[in-house]
Fold:
Amino acid sequence: MANQKIKIYTRAGDKGKTYLANGKKISKDSPEITALGSIDELNASIGVAVSFIKEKGVVKLLQDVQKDLLNIGAEIGNSGQSAKNTSKLYPIDKDKIVELESFIDLFSKKIPEIQTFIVPTGKTEFALLNFSRTVCRRAERDLVSLNKKRKVNPNILAYTNRVSDLLFIVARYLNRGREKLWESG
Structure:
């Protein structure tokens, strides 16, 4: 049995149902699966952006966010339930939020202030991180919808909100303040 390969397909989802990590069978269009899909898409989009970024510190920061997104998915996939020590299993706590805020503040100091909207175009990294930011906003909305059905860890909601801010600021930092500013009319 140790040498037996696990098949990637199970056929369990062929009729629109799937299983959460805790074994609960649910519809593929449930709020849990919608939120999990958005978090997964966010993680993948950040991965694409990271593949174009040359600054090692930024890459490390974004890869840490990707790990946190996997932890968020694990908690959502377990219906918010976990082992006795949740903080060890899913380390999305207030410290993670504060850490993101410190990075947002750090990068904000390195770029010029803006007084208008920015057109999301320019360097590849800038455009991709802005795309990730919009995916993050959708994931955040999906988590809010899930929270109306069942309680979601409030740190996850806050963390996701900060991730979108971080993506915006890091994108601006990588673009070195050479954004195309929106002009009305």
